[in-house]
Specification:
This protein has 252 residues and is mainly beta. The protein is built from 1 helix and 13 strands. It has one domain.
Length: 252
């Protein structure tokens, strides 16, 4: 969580000399697993076929991506580079303890660093063979203009299992990013929001998401918003996020 905040602070500082901003409402540290030789793109254990999600339906994977890994090893012993498309580079990876999983973010190198295809693949460990299976693929096209990703692990859906909160930074004067939540147990993205001049963090009480966003009043320079509005969202059994609380700054 510390590194995610640092990235946002640096971006905000670099953009603090513009015009007014928007008032739109739009923690385990992320550790890359890297065990030498655990898996390679050419590994005979990797089967390029469509796996089955926890819900039982086949999922799509990018070309050149293995769908399974048969060795029953811990997440920390997996090589993320062998779990993504062959032409891609690992951008970051997060180990999830419960359910045991490895979430890998990758980027496909290209001539334009501001326009690169990216994606996130969720790998889950199962009790039966094959031990490791890709259960979700969340692609991001080059047109999205993502400059980098960061994330952290925490339960934000309230089911007692860990999720991954991710930020895909797109830059701009408002330090904009697309924030999302990957429900690892469901193998799905359950929250997505574009946000400028703010950030989203896990909330512990109640369990959910805490959204902090700058509030600009007429005449406020971009560096100095009048206040920050904080909203807490909680995830319901019906799959809908609702506002649990909101702190609205006083007029002034």
């Amino acid at each position: 969580m510390r590194r995610l905040g640092a990235l946002l602070v640096v971006t905000l500082a670099a953009s603090a000399c513009g015009g007014g901003g928007t008032t739109d409402d739009r923690s385990t540290s992320p550790t890359a697993a890297s065990a030498s030789g655990a898996l390679s793109p050419a590994s005979p254990s990797a089967t390029p076929s469509s796996p089955v999600s926890p819900a039982g339906s086949p999922i799509e994977l990018p070309p050149g991506t293995p769908a399974t890994f048969v060795d029953d090893v811990a997440a920390s012993d997996l090589d993320p580079a062998g779990l993504i498309p062959r032409r891609a580079d690992v951008e970051d990876a997060w180990i999830v303890e419960e359910p045991e999983a490895l979430v890998v973010a990758y980027v496909v190198p290209g001539d334009d660093p501001f326009r690169q295809d990216r994606g996130t693949i969720v790998w889950r460990r199962f009790a039966d063979a094959p031990a490791w299976r890709a259960v979700a693929w969340l692609p991001t096209s080059a047109e999205a203009g993502v400059l980098g990703v960061d994330g952290l692990v925490a339960d934000v859906t309230g089911d007692g299992l860990q999720d991954v909160v991710m930020a895909a930074f797109t830059g701009g004067s408002g330090a904009c990013a697309r924030w999302s939540v990957v429900d690892v147990s469901a193998g799905a993205e359950v929250f997505a929001r574009d946000l400028c001049d703010g950030r989203i963090d896990p909330s512990a009480d109640p369990v959910g998401l805490s959204i902090d966003q700058a509030v600009y009043r007429p005449g406020d320079p971009h560096c100095c918003p009048s206040a920050f509005r904080t909203s807490v969202l909680v995830y319901g059994a019906d799959g809908v996020w609702t506002v649990a609380s909101k702190e609205v700054p006083p007029a002034g």
